[in-house]
Amino acid sequence: MTADDLNDRMDAMLAAAGADDSRKPGLITVRTDDWIHGGIGGVRATCKALSDGLRRRDVVIKVSTDFQRALLSRAEAGVRGEPYREPLPRP
User: Fold this and answer.
1) Which of 25, 54, 68, 78 is within CB 3.0–4.6 Å of 61 for a Cys-Cys bond?
2) 7-16 pLDDT, tens per residue?
3) pTM for this structure?
């Protein structure tokens, strides 16, 4: 998954969600090895505060050996993606 792939997926998810917040992007999951070894094609994250965690376009990123690369909706992510924010525009 490259940065453009992720942005395309996020934009498509936002467009399909319309006014339904539960269908908006809620969590990005990444396998640890992919994150460490750059296997996600230049996806950059921000962290304004430790309590915010890593984010891309204001969507939470979780990194774990248990995860595969995925973009989950808020409904799929549940509390793991909280606190939810409106996704930022494409950089």
Assistant:
1) 54
2) 999 999 999 9
3) 0.89
